[in-house]
Amino acid sequence: MTDRVTARVVVAGAVYDQGRLLAARRSAPPALAGGWELPGGKLEPGETPEQALVRELREELGVEAEPVERVPGEWPLGPGYVLQVWTARLLSGDPRPLEDHDELRWLAVDELDSVEWLPQDRPAVEAAARRIAPGPPGSGGGAGRR
Ligand SMILES: Nc1nc2c([nH]c(=O)n2[C@H]2C[C@H](O)[C@@H](COP(=O)(O)OP(=O)(O)OP(=O)(O)O)O2)c(=O)[nH]1
C-alpha cells in the first residue's frame, strides 16, 4: 500500500494544444520502455510540483509550458511514489523526445485508446482528458489556444 504521508510525488503534464493531448512513449527503464505516459518526473528537493513540471517539460521535450490546473486525484505508482497531474499549456517550442522518450504523439480525445498507456496512467489520463475536452459550441468549455 502506498504510504500517503511519505510517498514521493511524480508530477506529470497533461500538455494540450487545440484540444489534443500530448502522449510520450518511454524509452527506459526496460520495465517501462514502450509504454505511453504523460511527460514529467520526480520532484527535486525544495521544488513545488509546478516548478518541477516546468523543469521536466523543458528537459524532456525542449518546450516552455505553463501549468494551468491540478487534475484532481492522485494515482499510486511503484512503491513509495504517487502520480499527480497538472494540465499544462504549451507556450513555446515544438515538443521533441529529448530525454526518456522515443516518440511523441498529439492525440485527440477520441484517439486516446490508440496508444498503450502504462496501466497506472490510464485513470490519470482519463481524468486529465475530461478537463481538456472541448465542450459544445458556446459552452465556454475546452482548452484550445486563446
Ligand atoms: N514522468 C512520468 N513518470 C511516470 C508516469 N507513470 C509512471 O508510472 N511513471 C513512473 C516512471 C518512473 O519510475 C517514475 C518517474 O520517473 P522519471 O524517470 O520520469 O523521473 P525523473 O525524470 O525525475 O528521472 P530520474 O531523476 O529519476 O532519473 O514514475 C507518468 O505518467 N509520467
Quaternary structure state of the chains depicted? single chain
Report the average pLDDT across residues.
90
Helix content: 10-25%
CATH superfamily: Nucleoside Triphosphate Pyrophosphohydrolase
Taking all Cα atoms into account, the compactness measure Rg is 14 Å
Shape estimate: globular
Please name the CATH topology.
Nucleoside Triphosphate Pyrophosphohydrolase
State the major sheet: 7 strands, mixed
Poorly predicted spans: 138-146
Sequence of secondary-structure elements: EEEEHEEEH
Ligands: 8-OXO-2'-deoxyguanosine-5'-triphosphate
Give me the secondary-structure category.
alpha+beta
The structural domain count equals 1
Tell me the name of the CATH class. Answer: Alpha Beta
Number of strands: 7
| Cα separation of the termini | 42 Å
Supply the key terms:
146 residues; alpha+beta; Nucleoside Triphosphate Pyrophosphohydrolase; 38% strand; globular; binds 8-OXO-2'-deoxyguanosine-5'-triphosphate
